[in-house]
Design goal:
globular; about 35% helix; 5-stranded antiparallel beta sheet; alpha+beta; 5-stranded mixed beta sheet; Nucleotidyltransferase, domain 5; about 230 residues; 6 helices
């Protein structure tokens, strides 16, 4: 018996329904399942467009999209938008004027980097990739630095409201008081965020689940660590 076939079938069916509403044909068959995984195929009226794999993580009851093997640019946009929708991670529409930042940190071979990407709607506005001299806090320091860089960008561009999407809970919890900062880096981070006067909305997005905007931040953080 294929492990978690029922869970994957229900999720894949909902995902396909969203995709078809956006004008792309998608399907899976009885042979599309493996343990923890289902494969979905895409096509338009003329040709096959490619496949993706969706994995289920029972410990978190979460799904991740990997191996996006689709070459058609329009199809990729529909898949990514549909993935955001089914996971509840859609960005604010451009006309709201609310910016979206995706922030991440990385620690590679003894070097720390931070990365962030800022959107207005689906329009990419700014990419940030930076190496951090102080490596004592490893990836933790990179995560906090990424948010500070976003705040600095907001100040420079007179942005008063932004949603910051993150995968490390401390980014939000240190500021809201759910966690107490225990080292100088976290303490200074809280001071910077609070003093900024920027209206910040917080949202956690698990890393490596297929959110394309989050993946961009991850790549920028890794690039920063490798500078």
């Amino acid at each position: 018996m294929t492990l978690f076939k029922n869970e994957l079938s229900v999720f894949a069916s909902k995902f396909i329904e969203i995709i078809k509403e956006k004008g792309l044909d998608a399907s899976y068959g009885s042979d599309s399942f493996r343990d923890y995984m289902v494969q979905i195929s895409f096509k338009n009226s003329l040709v096959k467009l490619g496949k993706i794999n969706i994995y289920y993580k029972p410990s978190k009851k979460s799904y991740s999209l990997v191996n996006l093997n689709v070459k058609d640019e329009t199809a990729v946009k529909i898949i990514n938008k549909s993935w955001e929708q089914i996971n509840g991670f859609e960005v604010h529409k451009e006309e709201t004027g609310i910016y979206e930042a995706f922030a991440d940190g990385s620690f590679i071979n003894g070097k720390t980097g931070c990365g962030a990407v800022i959107f207005l709607g689906d329009k990419k506005i700014k990419e940030i990739s930076k190496n951090i001299a102080d490596t004592s806090a490893r990836q933790f320091g990179g995560e906090l630095c990424a948010v500070i860089e976003v705040i600095n960008w907001c100040k420079e561009n007179n942005i008063k409201k932004i949603r910051i999407n993150y995968d490390y809970l401390g980014i939000e919890y240190f500021v809201t008081g759910k966690w107490k900062p225990k080292n100088i880096i976290a303490v200074e981070y809280v001071k910077t965020v609070v003093a900024s006067g920027i209206d910040i909305l917080w949202r956690k997005i698990d890393s490596h689940t297929g959110n394309i905007k989050n993946d961009i931040a991850d790549k920028l953080a890794k690039a920063g660590a490798n500078l």
